[in-house]
């Protein structure tokens, strides 16, 4: 049993993990950079340690500082949250080598899945359909030309170590292929210190549908249904919902089965997500996120499963306390990500309330939103018996939200939620770019 967790993160996910710890009777210890000493997670946690100056490269991304903090505070486990070092095999290994429990899958599994080319290979081996593409990394432009011709344009060049939509280039004709490979590779080298790129058939306006799982160390894997994350801007998710309007029962069953097969073939423990693109009724494996995701609360609302609690339990060595047959998806849930467009001090903050509402945030009046980190400041979620009820509630909730001192994308979110195309349920990943053009 885990007694004490060091939370190696910040912002809303840190608050989320502190809350789970409180409910489980686990001591929570926050780390913080000099810019975060007044953060809500630090206020709420049982204890806190400063790990360095504001830039993440000197604090949240320093394995040594984080592990020293855990040892100093006598923690027995580290929760990495999302982003930062949550998918760093080096950090996961260092945590285990220090005799601490890593709340995530084993380092070697993270390493394998972090290479999207390798991850795709393991999906093929597990019998999961993948997007047609280059057989491994692109090593030679002439060869890439041949492969692209065979697949047919458009194609997409993607970074093997990519994340956050970086290092991706859509290519519509052979003339642009060489340049796109160079640009994507340079971007990937800068962002991930790995210029390796691969190529896939570019699917026009597909749906992004992902499946959440929990796995224990006894070989049990349970999936918790899907989330639809097709509303994206520049390949970054903005609105997530469950269930997906694009998934029928047959596809749902196939995706669930494929997801469980893949995770069972891996040495996997904890929470994880498999991302698919859905195109003309067929799902195609895209990648695995070997950590909890920002949008996990959507699934919590429709299944009643506390994903962070279960993640902590299975990583602490417990067996999953439920089986696939115990999981029921009921009703509808949606999340709108509220992003800050500018840093600044919060002068007024009144979070919405009422039935079927959940706000995961770290804001409070007087809080200074720092320019150093991610722009996500609040996740606003609503639940309804069906999609229209959930979305009408979201419209009310976004109206009710009072957030002053910074500018956010709240108005844009309202426009999405009420857009007739979004309401119709028939849209793809290109939807937002289309309505941006209209506006
Ligand atoms: P990241 O890890 O950077 O988020 P992903 O591989 O998850 O990258 O892709 C992010 C988004 O990019 C997807 O949700 C989708 O909108 C788009 N995308 C990626 N690959 C393809 C593809 N082969 N065809 C069409 N869109 C794609």
TrEMBL record:
GO terms for molecular function: ATP binding; biotin carboxylase activity; metal ion binding. Its EC number is 6.3.4.14. Residues 120-316 form the ATP-grasp domain. SMART domains: Biotin_carb_C. It catalyses: N(6)-biotinyl-L-lysyl-[protein] + hydrogencarbonate + ATP = N(6)-carboxybiotinyl-L-lysyl-[protein] + ADP + phosphate + H(+). SUPFAM superfamilies: Glutathione synthetase ATP-binding domain-like (SSF56059), PreATP-grasp domain (SSF52440), Rudiment single hybrid motif (SSF51246). Residues 1-437 form the Biotin carboxylation domain. Pfam families: Biotin_carb_C, Biotin_carb_N, CPSase_L_D2. This protein is a component of the acetyl coenzyme A carboxylase complex; first, biotin carboxylase catalyzes the carboxylation of the carrier protein and then the transcarboxylase transfers the carboxyl group to form malonyl-CoA. PANTHER family: BIOTIN CARBOXYLASE, CHLOROPLASTIC, PYRUVATE CARBOXYLASE SUBUNIT A. This is biotin carboxylase. It comes from Spirochaeta africana (strain ATCC 700263 / DSM 8902 / Z-7692). The lineage of its organism: Bacteria, Pseudomonadati, Spirochaetota, Spirochaetia, Spirochaetales.
């Amino acid at each position: 049993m885990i007694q004490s967790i060091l939370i190696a993160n910040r912002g809303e996910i840190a608050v989320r993990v502190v809350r789970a710890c409180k409910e489980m009777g686990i001591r929570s210890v926050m780390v913080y950079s000099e810019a975060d000493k007044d953060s809500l997670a630090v206020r709420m946690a049982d204890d806190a340690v400063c790990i360095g100056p504001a830039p993440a490269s000197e604090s949240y991304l320093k394995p040594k500082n984080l592990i020293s903090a855990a040892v100093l505070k006598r923690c027995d486990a580290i929760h990495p949250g999302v982003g930062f070092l949550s998918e760093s095999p080096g950090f996961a290994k260092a945590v285990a080598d220090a005799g601490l429990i890593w709340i995530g899958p084993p380092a070697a599994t993270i390493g394998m899945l972090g290479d999207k080319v390798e991850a795709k290979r393991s999906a093929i081996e597990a019998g999961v359909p993948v997007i047609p593409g280059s057989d491994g990394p692109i090593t030679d432009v002439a060869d890439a030309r041949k492969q692209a011709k065979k697949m047919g344009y458009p194609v997409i060049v993607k970074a093997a170590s990519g994340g956050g939509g970086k290092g991706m280039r859509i290519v519509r004709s052979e003339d642009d292929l060489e340049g796109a490979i160079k640009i994507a590779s340079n971007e990937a080298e800068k962002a991930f210190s790995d210029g390796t790129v691969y190529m896939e058939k570019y699917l026009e306006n597909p749906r992004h549908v992902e499946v959440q799982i929990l796995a224990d160390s006894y070989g049990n894997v349970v999936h918790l249904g899907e989330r639809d994350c097709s509303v994206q801007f520049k390949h970054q998710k903005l609105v997530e919902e469950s269930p997906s309007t694009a998934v029928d029962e047959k596809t749902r069953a196939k995706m669930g089965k494929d997801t469980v097969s893949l995770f069972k073939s891996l040495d996997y423990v904890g929470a994880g997500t498999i991302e698919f693109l859905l195109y003309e009724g067929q799902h195609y494996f895209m990648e695995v996120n070997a950590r909890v995701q920002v949008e996990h609360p959507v699934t919590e609302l429709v299944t009643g499963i506390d994903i962070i609690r279960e993640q902590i339990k299975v990583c602490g060595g417990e067996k999953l306390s439920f089986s696939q047959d115990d999981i029921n998806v009921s009703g509808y849930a949606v999340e709108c990500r509220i992003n800050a467009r500018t840093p600044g001090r919060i002068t007024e903050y009144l979070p919405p309330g009422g039935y079927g509402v959940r706000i995961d945030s770290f804001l409070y009046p007087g809080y200074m939103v720092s320019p150093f980190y991610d722009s996500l400041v609040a996740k606003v979620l609503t639940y309804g018996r069906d999609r229209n009820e959930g979305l009408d509630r979201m419209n009310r909730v976004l109206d009710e939200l009072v957030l002053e001192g910074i500018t956010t994308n709240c108005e844009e979110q309202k426009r999405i939620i009420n857009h007739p195309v979004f309401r119709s349920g028939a849209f793809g990943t290109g939807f937002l770019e289309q309505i941006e053009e209209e506006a």
